[in-house]
Amino acid sequence: xxxxxxxxxxxxxxEKVYACEAHHSFDIAKSGYCxxxxxxxxxxxxxxxxxRSRTAFLxxxxxxxxxxxxxxxxxxxxxxxxxxxGCGEGYYTNDIKRRIPSMDVWGFxxxxxxxxxxxxxxxxxxxxxxxxxxxxxxxxxxxAVLSIFAPVYEEENYxxxxxxxxxxxxxxxxxxxxxxxxxxxDTVYENEAAAMSYPHFRLIREEMLDYEIQLSSGESIxxxxxMTPYYWKTSxxxxxxxxxxxxxxxxxxxxxxxxxxxx
Length: 263
Ligand SMILES: C[S@@+](CC[C@H](N)C(=O)[O-])C[C@H]1O[C@@H](n2cnc3c(N)ncnc32)[C@H](O)[C@@H]1O
Ligand SMILES: [Zn+2]
Prior knowledge:
The chain is of the alpha/beta class. The protein has one domain (11-261): Rossmann fold. Helices cover 28% and strands 29% of the residues. It contains eight helices and eleven strands. It has helices spanning 48-59, 64-76, 91-99, 112-119, 154-160, 178-184, 218-226, 236-243, and strands at 11-13, 17-20, 25-27, 34-35, 81-85, 104-109, 126-129, 142-148, 161-172, 201-215, 248-261. An eight-stranded mixed beta sheet has the order 4-7-6-5-8-9-11-10, with helices on both faces. It has a three-stranded antiparallel beta sheet with strand order 1-2-3, with no helix packed on it. Helix 5 links the parallel strand 8 (142-148) and strand 9 (161-172). Helix 1 (48-59) crosses helix 7 (218-226). The site of S-adenosylmethionine has 18 residues, from strand 6.
């Protein structure tokens, strides 16, 4: 399944390292994840604060309906091997494994802090620090790739998927977090759908999951805000106004697209 990031040879698991026949070896952390980024490629991805905020927000269950829908779709597709590409701290990944224990689940993220948090849950997912643009996986070894609010590298997904493999992508819908945006800005625009096309894949199903969430503490509002891109581009006055609130109702909207690899 795994290939060495240095020589592309087969990578196997030993007691405390992953190693290849050319004697490249990569330590396994106590919690079980392994960093397969090469030294010259600095691990970036989401930072600790962002991860802390996302963990706090997601633990309140506001995105549980999305998680349920993803588990339902994957169960119906009879997926046995799954990659969560840009898995963050494993909110979806760990529960997919817990709910479908027969599935072999692999989580990859560029952020070491996120992967460390994900693997501390000991769910049985194989976790690695790696870029989804250059996955340490053999060609045609996976049944499905899941990508939730994460960068997509079509060629790489195509390479690692088996023939007729699935690619399930989740991105924000046009009205995702509209209530939060209204609380921050005088003029609010809908999110633009990124005009993406994946020539190696065929879109076989798409749907919009759409509902309202109620945040009933200042802490939840702040956690949500800090995990969004608005955190980086909002005036101080607007942030102070938001932080003074103790409740907020906002729409969430998830666009799910299911693609199948064209052979
Ligand atoms: C918005 S978060 C979503 C995380 C997770 N899928 C979720 O929905 O909870 C995007 C994630 O993509 C990761 N990321 C960004 N660029 C990446 C790359 N090139 N390779 C792997 N992960 C990447 C970030 O570190 C972050 O954890
Ligand atoms: Zn090697």
